[in-house]
Amino acid sequence: MDAKNKQEKPGIRNKNYWDSIYTNGNSSELLSLDEYKKDYKQYCDKLIMDKIIEFYGEGSVLEIGAGNSDWIIRVFNELKPPHCAGLDYSEEGCRLLEEKSKANGVNINVVHADMFSPPVGLIEKFNFVMSFGVVEHFKDLAEVLGIVSQFSKPGGLIFSIIPNMAGVYGVLTRLWNKEIYDIHVPHDLPSFIDGHHVAGLDVLWADYLGSSNFSVLSSCFKEQKGFNFFIYKQLTRISKVLWFFESHIKELPVSKAFSPYILIVSRVPE
């Protein structure tokens, strides 16, 4: 077994697993691309997009793990980069992203490839490389960040966001669906920062993001029934109440215990 396969979490390179994740995806829907700006129920999406807007300067954008992604389409709509690409390991995920891009009238170069064996034409081609919930699936964080950073031009930015599995979301995921928990490495902010430093990246911004978002636990449930699902739904309602408060009155503090995401923006050395 080679090094890249040794360091992955179980199931992460199983194409059938990822294709099954995308099976129920809706690729033909027209996205309300500006809705996150005014709908308090999308408050966390606004926090993420605000950070993308803050750090994106100019040039081409790549999303790693972009199967059926809304994010790459939102970024194209908001920032109008000269070139926008999405790479994914799943053929089904790529098919859905192509359909969604066409449905929403955006021009995304969809690449079906393994980031560990990427097309040569993608190496050092992008100014802004982003991933949402990808790098935490690998045991050796520094190694996978090195793989991600190979797509960036020297001096380009890496935008890495992962679920915060070191707090309450990790506890509940392990309780409700250990299979899902086991394909994640439960990083906290210090360990996530350390991985970037070991990878040789210059950290520009690093913190927990959002006060709460219990909706991130949706993947724990294959069926919408049972006591645990009932508790989950009540928790998501608490998050929505907090988002309403934050969007109209005051942003609440982030925390290791309850923030749903950890975000790091880093620079590839020149």
Produce the secondary structure layout.
Layout: H1 3-6, H2 15-22, H3 43-55, E1 61-64, H4 71-79, E2 84-88, H5 91-103, E3 109-112, E4 126-132, H6 141-149, E5 152-163, H7 168-176, H8 178-182, H9 189-198, E6 202-209, H10 227-248, E7 261-267
Parallel strand pairs: 1-2, 1-4, 2-3, 4-5
Antiparallel strand pairs: 5-7, 6-7
Helix pairs in contact: 2-5, 6-9
Description:
This protein has 270 residues and is an alpha/beta fold. It has one domain: Vaccinia Virus protein VP39 (Rossmann fold, 3-Layer(aba) Sandwich). It has helices at residues 3-6, 15-22, 43-55, 71-79, 91-103, 141-149, 168-176, 178-182, 189-198, 227-248, and strands at 61-64, 84-88, 109-112, 126-132, 152-163, 202-209, 261-267. Helix 2 packs parallel to helix 5 and helix 6 (141-149) packs across helix 9 (189-198).
What key attributes describe this structure?
alpha/beta; Rossmann fold; 38% helix; disordered N terminus
Task: Describe the structure concisely for a colleague.
The protein is an alpha/beta fold and 270 residues long.
CATH homologous superfamily heading: Vaccinia Virus protein VP39
Q: Sketch the topology as an H/E string, one letter per element.
A: HHHEHEHEEHEHHHEHE
The strand count comes to 7
How much is the radius of gyration in Å? 18 Å
- N- and C-termini, Cα separation: 33 Å
- Helix content bin: 25-40%
Count of helical segments?
10
